[in-house]
Design goal:
- This protein has six helices and five strands.
- Strands 2-1-5-4-3 form a five-stranded antiparallel beta sheet, sandwiched between helices.
Length: about 200
């Protein structure tokens, strides 16, 4: 799971979306490919944001990547490009938090900010792209869900080991000379009674 880029854009009904801040993690691309990849990411962000209505969120798949777009009703927008495995819910949590922070930092000045240049910097973008590389550590709900799945797996292993032990216990009871016939009958009857109530 990987976040490839995060872009903050200004949208207006009469013009193309304008990128005003961007951060990319292009470490998985060759040095000479990075500029081309960055241009494609900018193009995807602008194109898909333009096709997202104000107040809406949408995810668009393209090959092995997904572009998650969110356009606020005031025209401030964001897009996150991830691989196909990245959870959409976490991407939208990232966008909501990032746009709220951007708005609280810059106020309404974003409406007149110049087009994205190399000198345009919003430091939290770099922090977000690093923090959200691992969705489980960045999002509490995803972390809880992963913990529950892990606990469920442990419980299944425990139940399986108990069942294996039960099978072994049957053979030990049969072979035991220390148990009377009555004890063996009691064990078999209890096992039969309990087997009618197995919860699966």
């Amino acid at each position: 799971m990987k976040v490839v880029s995060i872009t903050i854009l200004r949208t207006t009904p009469s013009a193309e979306p304008t990128p005003i801040a961007m951060a990319c993690d292009l470490s998985s691309y060759g040095f000479f490919q990075r500029q081309g990849v960055k241009e494609m990411l900018t193009f995807f962000s602008k194109t898909f944001t333009k096709r997202t209505e104000p107040g809406q969120r949408q995810s668009i798949s393209h090959e092995s990547y997904v572009v998650h777009c969110y356009v606020r009703s005031d025209g401030l927008a964001g897009s996150v490009t991830t691989d196909a495995e990245y959870p959409p819910r976490v991407a939208f949590v990232l966008l909501t938090q990032l746009l709220d922070e951007f708005l609280s930092t810059n106020g309404d000045s974003w409406k007149s900010m110049p087009t994205l240049t190399e000198s345009t910097v919003f430091p939290p973008l770099e922090e977000y792209i690093v923090k959200y590389q691992d969705p489980a550590s960045a999002d509490k709900v995803t972390k809880i869900q992963n913990d529950l799945e892990e606990t469920t797996q442990i419980l299944h292993k425990t139940i399986d080991s108990v069942l294996e032990r039960g099978v072994k216990l049957d053979s030990l009871v049969e072979k035991s000379d220390d148990l009377s016939r009555q004890s063996k009958m009691f064990y078999k009857q209890a096992k039969k009674t309990n087997s009618c109530c197995v919860v699966s």
